[in-house]
Design goal:
This protein is mostly beta strands. The protein folds into 2 domains: 114 residues, Nucleotide cyclase, GGDEF domain (Alpha-Beta Plaits, 2-Layer Sandwich), CATH 3.30.70; 279 residues, Beta Barrel (Porin), CATH 2.40.160. The chain contains 6 helices and 25 strands.
C-alpha cells in the first residue's frame, strides 16, 4: 500500500487507506440463501470476529485474534492490544497487532498455520508465483499492467500392451509439460495474452521435447451492457466443456474424455473406393485407425476470430476458425487458403440455477479442405482425385451440463458428429458422450470417476447388409488428487479402454502427475 500510494501521489490521486482483520477457526461454508438467490459464503463466530477486527483496524494495521497469533507461533511478531468491546461478542476481545514476519524469506502463506483438519493440505509452504516474486509490472497510473504466470507438469505414464490411442507408446515413459503465459491489460478494454509451451508433443510420448507458440490473441471489450468482446488470434476453440478447463485446477483427470481422444477410421488423406471399401476400413486394426481422426482432437488451438457476449445468465460465443474440430495439430497453424472454407462455431451457455449450468454448441467445417493434394482415386470410383477431394465437412452438435452442490460436481456432454465421406452418398454418423462426478474434501483431497463411449451409425453397402462403419468403444477413468499447497498438487489416474473391434486389444493407462502453478 505504501508503494501504491507513492505512485498515486505522483499521479495526483488521493491515497488509499486500508485496515485488515484476521481470525481463524471452524466455519460453515456453502451456498446460502433462497432458491432464487444463492451466495457461496462462510458463517460462524470466527467469521464475525474477523469482520469486527477489520472494523477496528486502523489505516495500515493488521489486527488478529488470539487463535491466529497462537497458530503463527514464532513465525511472526505481534504486539498485544487492550481488550475491546466488539459488537456481537459477549466478552471483551484482546486483539493482536501484526508487526511483521519473524524472519526474512518466510512466505506469507504459512503465517496462519493450521486450524484443524480442513487445512491439512497446508503442511507445505505455498511456492511463490511469478507475480508474487515481483516479476509483474503496473504503470504508475495503472493504465498498463503486465503479469507473467506458468504451469509445470511432471508426469509418469505406464501404458498396457496396446497403445492408448493418441498416446502412441506401449512402454512406460516420463513426460513433462511447461507452460509460460504473459497477460497484458491496456486500459479497461484491451487484453492480450501469449502462451509458450515446451513438451514432448501435443499428446505425451517419448519423442524429443519441442517448444512452440500455443496461444496468442487480442481481446477488445466493445460494450459493457450487454457484455460484448471481440477476440482474434490463436486460442482455445469454443467446443464443449472439456477444452476450456484442460490443464486448469478444475480438471480432475489427466486424460480427456473418449470422444476427444479416440481416433475413428475416418481418414483425411485416403479415398475409399465406395461404401463397401469404406465399411472395410474398420477391419484394418490399429494401423488403419492410427491414420484416423477423433470427433474433436484433444484441445484444439486454431486461428480465427470470435465474438464473446453475455446478458444476464446467457453467454454466447460465435467463432470463425481455420480448422475443423477433428483437425490434427499440424492444421491449426495459419497458412494460405485456410479461410476459403472456414469452420463456423456457435456456443450458448445458460446459468439455469446457481448450481446448474446448461450449454449447447454447433460446429461445421471441412476436415478435408478443397484443393488438398490427394492420391490417385481407387479403381471403380467413377471420378478423379480432384473430385474426391472437393472438400468434405464435419458437423457436430453438442449438449453439455454442469451441476455443483457443496463438495460434489457432476459434468456431462453428448455430441453427434456427422461426416461427409468421399464416394459414399450416405453421411457417416457417430454419437459420443461422457459423464463424470467429482467429490472434494476440505483437506484438499478429491476423487473422480468418468465413463464415456463412442457409438457408430450404420451404412448400407452395395454388397453388404447395413452395418456400423466403425466399432463402438467405451472408456472408464478413475482419478484422485491432493492439494499439497495453494498452487501445488499431485494427481493419479487409471484409464481402461474397451472396444468391440476383433483385431484390436483393449488398452489401459496408468498416469501419475505432479503439477505446480507459478
Amino acid at each position: 500500500m505504501q508503494e501504491l500510494n507513492q505512485e498515486r501521489a505522483q499521479a495526483g490521486n488521493p491515497p488509499l487507506e486500508v485496515g485488515i482483520g484476521v481470525a481463524g477457526g471452524p466455519v460453515v461454508a456453502g451456498n446460502m440463501g433462497s432458491q432464487d438467490r444463492l451466495n457461496y459464503t462462510v458463517l460462524g463466530e470466527d467469521v464475525n470476529l474477523a469482520a469486527r477486527l477489520c472494523s477496528e483496524a486502523g489505516h495500515g494495521e493488521i489486527l488478529t485474534s488470539d487463535a491466529t497469533r497462537r497458530a503463527a507461533g514464532e513465525r511472526a511478531r505481534f504486539l498485544v492490544q487492550e481488550p475491546r468491546e466488539l459488537k456481537g461478542m459477549s466478552q471483551p476481545v484482546r486483539p493482536w497487532l501484526v508487526q511483521g514476519l519473524a524472519s526474512v524469506g518466510v512466505p506469507a502463506g504459512i503465517l496462519l498455520g493450521s486450524f484443524g483438519p480442513t487445512e491439512a493440505q497446508d503442511f507445505l509452504p505455498d511456492p511463490p508465483t511469478l507475480a508474487e516474486a515481483g516479476l509483474g509490472y503496473i504503470s504508475p497510473s495503472g493504465f498498463f499492467q503486465l503479469f507473467p504466470s506458468g504451469r509445470l507438469d511432471l508426469a509418469l505414464y505406464r501404458p498396457g500392451e496396446a497403445p492408448p490411442w493418441l498416446i502412441p507408446e506401449t512402454e512406460p515413459f516420463p513426460a513433462g509439460h511447461l507452460q509460460l503465459v504473459l497477460d497484458a491489460f491496456v486500459g479497461h478494454r484491451l487484453y492480450l495474452t501469449t502462451e509458450l509451451r515446451a513438451d514432448r508433443g501435443h499428446e505425451p510420448s517419448s519423442r524429443s521435447p519441442t517448444a512452440r507458440l500455443q496461444q496468442a490473441f487480442l481481446r477488445l471489450q466493445v460494450a459493457d451492457r450487454p457484455s460484448l468482446h471481440l477476440q482474434a488470434g490463436r486460442f482455445t476453440a469454443p467446443y464443449g466443456n472439456h477444452p476450456s478447463r484442460r490443464r486448469t485446477m478444475d480438471e480432475p483427470f489427466i486424460r480427456p474424455p473418449v470422444h476427444y481422444d479416440h481416433p475413428t477410421v475416418m481418414r483425411p488423406k485416403d479415398v475409399p473406393g465406395g461404401v463397401d471399401g469404406f465399411l472395410g476400413w474398420k477391419e484394418g486394426g490399429p494401423d488403419a485407425r492410427e491414420r484416423g481422426l477423433p470427433p474433436v482432437w484433444g484441445t484444439p488451438y486454431p486461428v480465427g476470430a470470435m465474438l464473446l457476449g453475455g446478458h444476464g445468465e446467457l453467454a454466447i460465443r460465435l467463432a470463425v476458425l481455420n480448422s475443423a474440430p477433428a483437425s490434427s495439430p499440424w492444421a491449426w497453424g495459419l497458412s494460405n487458403g485456410d479461410f476459403q472454407d472456414p469452420t463456423l462455431t456457435l456456443h450458448l451457455g445458460y446459468q439455469l440455477r446457481p448450481e446448474l449450468h446448461l450449454g449447447g454448441w454447433y460446429a461445421q467445417g471441412p476436415y478435408i479442405r478443397r484443393g488438398t493434394p490427394a492420391p490417385d482415386t481407387p479403381p471403380g470410383t467413377g471420378g478423379t482425385a480432384e473430385d474426391a477431394f472437393r472438400g468434405y465437412e464435419q458437423r457436430l452438435v453438442g449438449l453439455e451440463g454442469t451441476f455443483t452442490r457443496g463438495m460434489v460436481e457432476i459434468r456431462g456432454e453428448a455430441v453427434r458428429d456427422v461426416w461427409q465421406v468421399p464416394n459414399v452418398e450416405e453421411n457417416a454418423v457417430e454419437l459420443g458422450w461422457f459423464l463424470e462426478a467429482k467429490a472434494k474434501s476440505g483437506a484438499g483431497l478429491y476423487g473422480a470417476v468418468r465413463g464415456g463411449a463412442l457409438h457408430f451409425g450404420e451404412l448400407a453397402g452395395d454388397l453388404r447388409d447395413r452395418e456400423p462403419w466403425d466399432y463402438d468403444v467405451f472408456r472408464g477413468q478413475v482419478a484422485a488428487g491432493y492439494r499439497l499447497a495453494r498452487n501445488l498438487g499431485i494427481r493419479g489416474e487409471y484409464m481402461r479402454h474397451f472396444t468391440d473391434a476383433p483385431a484390436e486389444e483393449d488398452s489401459e493407462l496408468l498416469s501419475l502427475e505432479l503439477w505446480w502453478r507459478f
